[in-house]
């Protein structure tokens, strides 16, 4: 449920259509746009750091700037970032990521993994990215 709430929140933040209608009265449209831009900057700071220092490992260790396969070696951060790339309208990086995942992600390996983390990060990441990307033709394409 948390993944859906986050996605819904981000759609509302990134949508100029909904900004005036859905944000609290204390947040002006200009402040909402500033917050949207700050979220974008923070995401790309983290995503670019992961891609530069840790990809294709699961996660980036922030203090050492090294990658680590903590949950099975599935490039979890890349998968977990797909929905945000789609929400940001970054079709180029989204497409590159999907292509890499399609060519390299394999589940037919003998590894012990956390079922909870695998479910929320891999299954949740792939499903939410698919749903968001599927809506591009109808909803999201109007936003960008």
List descriptors.
mainly alpha; 6 helices; two-stranded antiparallel ribbon; 144 residues
Topology:
Elements: H1 2-14, H2 16-22, H3 29-53, E1 59-61, E2 66-68, H4 76-87, H5 91-104, H6 115-134
Antiparallel strand pairs: 1-2
Notes on the protein architecture:
The model has no long low-confidence stretch (mean pLDDT 82). The chain is globular and about 50 Å long. The protein has a two-stranded antiparallel ribbon with strand order 1-2. It has helices spanning 2-14, 16-22, 29-53, 76-87, 91-104, 115-134, and strands at 59-61, 66-68. Helix 3 packs antiparallel against helix 4 (76-87). It has 144 residues and is mainly α. Helix content is 63%, strand content 4%. The longest helix is centred in the first third of the chain and has 25 residues, at 29-53.
Sheet with most strands: strand arrangement: 1-2
Reported for the largest beta sheet, the result is:
2 strands, antiparallel
**SSE string, helices as H and strands as E:** HHHEEHHH
End-to-end separation in angstroms reads 26 Å
Q: What is the count of β-strands?
A: 2
What is the share of helical residues? 55-70%
What is the percentage of strand-forming residues? under 5%
Shape: globular
């Amino acid at each position: 449920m948390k993944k859906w709430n986050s996605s819904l929140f981000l759609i509302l933040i990134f949508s100029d259509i909904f900004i005036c209608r859905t944000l609290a009265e204390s947040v002006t449209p200009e402040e909402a746009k500033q917050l949207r831009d700050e979220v974008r900057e923070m995401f790309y700071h983290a995503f670019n750091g992961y891609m530069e220092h840790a990809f294709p490992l699961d996660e980036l260790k922030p203090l050492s700037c090294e990658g680590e396969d903590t949950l099975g070696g599935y490039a979890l951060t890349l998968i977990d970032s797909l929905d945000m790339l789609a929400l940001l309208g970054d079709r180029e990086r989204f497409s590159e990521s999907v292509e890499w995942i399609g060519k390299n992600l394999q589940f037919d390996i003998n590894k012990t993994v956390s079922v909870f983390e695998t479910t929320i990060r891999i299954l949740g990441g792939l499903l939410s990215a698919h749903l968001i990307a599927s809506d591009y033709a109808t909803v999201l394409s109007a936003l960008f």
